[in-house]
Amino acid sequence: MWVNFMKYRNVLFSESVKSNINYLCSSMFLAPVNICTPYRVLCKLIVMKKPLIHLFVFVFCRLVASQSIVYKIPIQGTIDLGLPPFIERVIQKAEEENADAIIFDIDTFGGRVDAATQIKDAILSSKVLTVAFINRRAISAGALISLSCEKIYMTGGGTIGAATAVDMKGNKGSEKVISYMREEMASTAEKRNRNTAIAKGMVDEELSFSHLVIEGDSVEVTDLEGRKEGKLITLTTELALKYKIADGESESFENILENLGIENPEIKIAKVNWSENFVRFLTNPVVASLLMTFGFLGILFELQSPGWGIPGTFGAVCLALSLGASYIAELATMTDLIIIFVGVALLLVEVVFIPGFGFAGIAGIGVLLWGLYELLLPDVPVSPEVTSMALTGLTIGIIGGIIGMVFLFRLMTKTRFWTKLTAPGMESHEKGYDTSLGWENLEGTEGIASTDLRPSGWINIGEQRIFVVSEGDYISKNDQVKVLSVDGNRVVVRKLNTNS
Question: Exposed, middle or buried by CB within 10 Å (0-12, 13-18, 19+), for 380?
Answer without folding.
Answer: middle
